[in-house]
Design brief:
Order of helices and strands: HEHEHHEEHHEEEEEEHEEEEH
Shape: globular
Largest sheet: 8 strands, mixed
Helix content: 25-40%
Distance between the termini: 32 Å
Radius of gyration: 19 Å
Length: 331
C-alpha cells in the first residue's frame, strides 16, 4: 500500500481531517491546553563553569529540558541548515519518494511518515527525513538528499559543531552527578556515539485542535538537540501540565532522553513532550538524537547506586531498549 504523505494531503485543500488523524478526546489540544505564564529554563553556555553545572543539573532534574543560548553555533549555519531542509520538502513528490524508508523492514533512514507503532493506529500530522550524521563508518551518504546540492556540506558542518556542544553538555551533566566529566560520554559509546538527524515537517492542518504533530513521548536517545523554525508547537510535561515552549531565535532546545535518565538512575528526567500543529503555517524542526551504538550496555552508573539508592532501571543493550520502545513493550 502506498502511504499518503501528510504534506501532499495538506496541500490538497482539505477542510476536514481524515479520521486516522483525529486524536482520542483526552489527547486533543482543545482538551489538554498548556499552562499559561510558565516558562522553560533558558541557560547561557557562556557563564562560569560552576554556575553552568548547577543550572544544567537543576534543569535536567526538574524539567529534563532547557533552551541553550550562546552555544557557539553561528546563526548563519543554522539558517543554511534550515534552508536546505526546506528546499528538500519543496521537491516534487516523485523525487522525495525516491528516498522513501521502510521502518517495518528495519530501514529507518530516508523519507517517511510514520515512525512508531501507535496502539490505536492514529497517525501523526508530520512527514520527516531521517539519517545518520556520525560516526563516519555508520554514515550512508546514498540516503542523504542529493538536492539541494548544499545539503551534504551544510549538514556535515552542523554535525561537527553540534558534536562539540554535545561533548560539553555531557561533561557538565557528568559533573552535575558528582562524577568526572568524561563518565557519561564514555558510557554512551565515547567516539562511537551516534548523531541522528530527523527533519520534521508539520504542514498546515485544517483542524489543529483535533490533531497532534507528534504524540506525547520521551526520546530513546541520550540527549536530543533541536532547532525549530519560528512556528511554535513544542510542549513539555511538567508537574501534571503541558507547558508551551516559546520560540527563541538560534537557541538549541535540549531534551534529556531515556538513556541519560537510566545512566543517572533517575536524577535527570527524560522529558515527556508533544508537538502541536498550526492551521495556517508549516512548522519544521531539526532534531538531532545523540544515541549510543546498539551494542552499548546501558544501566544505572555503578557510582550512583548503593543501599540508600538502589538501581531504578535494568541494564540492557541499547538494541534491546530500542526494540522494546518501538514495540511498546515494558522495559
Amino acid at each position: 500500500m502506498e502511504l499518503e504523505r501528510v504534506q501532499a494531503l495538506a496541500f490538497e485543500g482539505l477542510h476536514q481531517l481524515p479520521p486516522q488523524f483525529i486524536r482520542p478526546a483526552h489527547e486533543r489540544p482543545e482538551n489538554s491546553k498548556a499552562l499559561q505564564g510558565v516558562t522553560v529554563p533558558v541557560i547561557s553556555l557562556s557563564q562560569a563553569h560552576d554556575l553552568l553545572v548547577d543550572q544544567i543539573s537543576k534543569a535536567c532534574n526538574e524539567w529534563g529540558f532547557f533552551l541553550l543560548t550562546d552555544h557557539g553555533i553561528e546563526p548563519s549555519l543554522i539558517e543554511r541548515l534550515q534552508t536546505a531542509g526546506q528546499e528538500f520538502f519543496k521537491l516534487p513528490q516523485k523525487e522525495k519518494e525516491s528516498y522513501a524508508n521502510d521502518p517495518a523492514n528495519g530501514k529507518f533512514e530516508g523519507y517517511g511518515t510514520k515512525m512508531t507503532k501507535n496502539n490505536d493506529d492514529k497517525v501523526e500530522w508530520v512527514d520527516y527525513f531521517f539519517h545518520m550524521m556520525s560516526p563516519p563508518p555508520k554514515v550512508n551518504l546514498d540516503v542523504w538528499p542529493k538536492h539541494p546540492s548544499s545539503y551534504r556540506e551544510v549538514t556535515e558542518e552542523y554535525n561537527k559543531e553540534l558534536l562539540a556542544v554535545t561533548n560539553k553538555l555531557l561533561e557538565l551533566l557528568s559533573e552535575g552527578l558528582g562524577l568526572e566529566g568524561k563518565v557519561l560520554k564514555s558510557h554512551l559509546g565515547g567516539e562511537e556515539i551516534e548523531m541522528e538527524m530527523k527533519i520534521n515537517m508539520y504542514p498546515p492542518c485544517p483542524q489543529p485542535e483535533l490533531a497532534l504533530g507528534v504524540e506525547p513521548h520521551t526520546d530513546m536517545s541520550g540527549l536530543t538537540l533541536l532547532v525549530p523554525n519560528d512556528v511554535p508547537g513544542l510542549q513539555v510535561w511538567k508537574d501534571g501540565n503541558w507547558v508551551a515552549v516559546d520560540y527563541l531565535p538560534n537557541a538549541l532546545f535540549v531534551h534529556v532522553g531515556d538513556q541519560i535518565e537510566v545512566l543517572s538512575n533517575g536524577k535527570y528526567k527524560s522529558v515527556l513532550h508533544r508537538s502541536l500543529v498550526n492551521k495556517d503555517r508549516t512548522r519544521m524542526s531539526w532534531a538531532v538524537f545523540c544515541a549510543p551504538p546498539h551494542e552499548a550496555m546501558i544501566g544505572p552508573l555503578p557510582e550512583l547506586v548503593n543501599d540508600q539508592n538502589p538501581a531504578r532501571f535494568s541494564t540492557k543493550t541499547y538494541a534491546e531498549y530500542r526494540h522494546r520502545k518501538f514495540n511498546k513493550l515494558p522495559q
